[in-house]
Design goal:
Blueprint (H helix, E strand, L loop, with lengths): L24 H5 L18 H5 L8 H63 L6 E4 L2 E4 L12 H11 L12 H10 L29 H5 L1
Antiparallel strand pairs: 1-2
């Protein structure tokens, strides 16, 4: 009998596998912080004091270095998962496309053969545009009219002279000037909300040759 029992594994604390799992840089450089619990969920706009109440606090250079290294490694894992997902998606799309070729050709060809007969039979019906048969129905439906502007400038110039009613004059607000009026000249404009962009913390890895002395940081 198959064993259907399921075991739950915490995503925050994966089981240790010393055979296949290599230690991360933060674990090597900052072993004292290895017991910190993850993930820490902080919603946008959360007050910093409320978010860190009772939690680990970054208050020195060593902890800040650990935080940066941890963020960079998490972002790298995210990028690797995305790359893997994109690769699988590309394979699935390629499989779906190649697998459907024969059936798409069958649908197109048989429809081509069926259409003359279906049109002729439907034309004999009074009000209905559907031909009912034992295996299914065949209907005629009007597709949307198609319009393609091949040269916008030529068409626009002609219509401006001959058919001005076909030309739409669109009014738009200049956002650059609006920002200057509200944010720099402090002039309120009805119907518009604006605020200065806040500072956002960005983390990037150090370039080769600029790695600081860990002993000095820890000190």
């Amino acid at each position: 009998m198959l064993n259907t029992e399921c075991y739950a594994v915490s995503a925050a604390q994966p089981p240790e596998d010393t055979t296949h799992t290599l230690p991360t840089m933060p674990n090597i450089l900052f072993p004292d912080f290895s017991t910190i619990q993850f993930p820490i969920s902080v919603s946008p706009g959360t007050d910093a004091d409320a978010a860190t109440a009772g939690q680990f606090t970054v208050d020195n250079a060593s902890k800040a270095s650990w935080a940066i290294a941890t963020i960079l490694e998490a972002e790298e894992r995210i990028a690797q998962r995305k790359a893997l997902a994109d690769e699988y998606k590309a394979r699935l799309d390629a499989w779906l496309s190649s697998s459907n070729i024969q059936d798409n050709n069958t649908v197109s060809y048989i429809t081509f053969l069926l259409e003359p007969y279906a049109r002729d039979e439907i034309s004999k019906l009074h009000k209905s545009k559907t031909l009912s048969l034992p295996t299914g129905t065949a209907s005629l439906r009007k597709l949307p009219d198609r319009l393609e502007i091949t040269d916008n400038d030529i068409a626009l110039a002609y219509c401006e002279t001959e058919h001005p009613e076909a030309v739409i004059i669109k009014k738009e607000l200049n956002k650059s000037i609006i920002k200057d009026l509200i944010l720099k000249q402090t002039e309120p404009i009805p119907g518009i909300c604006a605020e200065l962009g806040p500072d956002k913390l960005y983390i990037k890895p150090l370039k080769i040759g600029k790695i600081p002395d860990i002993t000095q940081i820890a000190a």
